[in-house]
Amino acid sequence: MYRPLITAATLALLTACSTTPMAQVQPIDGVISGQCHVDKVRGAVGLAASAATVERARVDSDSLQVNVVRGEREESGPTASGAANPTPGAETGGDRLTIETGGTNNITALYCG
């Protein structure tokens, strides 16, 4: 008689303890300047454009806004020969980071503006 009640209570306690809070994305120096810089986020090219990755790129680039657009690129990021340009727009300036994504929702380019 008590076994189902104890099992349910134990299950409820264990599931309440297993949830981990999402860490907030914080800038390294504690302040977002609002002046976009792509040099610190070039490593995101090729990664999946998940909400967490996009937010991390926004914060690391010191941008106040981010714009995710579908790109027309066939390839992702620089090749071994350096033929593909992962930064087709401005590398600095403005308060917005623009992220281009490919057909599989991977990041293909990052630029300011």
**What about the largest sheet?**
3 strands, mixed
Terminal Cα span: 66 Å
User: Approximately what portion of the residues adopt beta-strand conformation?
Assistant: 15-25%
Averaging pLDDT over every residue, what do you get? 75
Number of strand segments: 3
Shape: elongated
Which range best describes the helical content: under 10%, 10-25%, 25-40%, 40-55%, 55-70% or over 70%?
10-25%
Uncertain spans = 79-83
Task: Assign the structural class, choosing from mainly alpha, mainly beta, alpha/beta, alpha+beta, or little secondary structure.
Answer: alpha+beta
Order of helices and strands: HHEEE
- Radius of gyration (CA) equals 20 Å
Q: Report the total helices.
A: 2
How do the strands of the widest beta sheet line up side by side? 1-2-3
Word description of this protein:
The chain has 113 residues and is of the alpha+beta class. Helix content is 24%, strand content 16%. The chain has 2 helices and 3 strands. It has helices spanning 2-18, 51-60, and strands at 65-70, 96-101, 107-112. Strands 1-2-3 form a 3-stranded mixed β-sheet, covered by helices on one side. The radius of gyration is 20 Å and the shape is elongated. Residues 79-83 have low confidence and may be disordered.
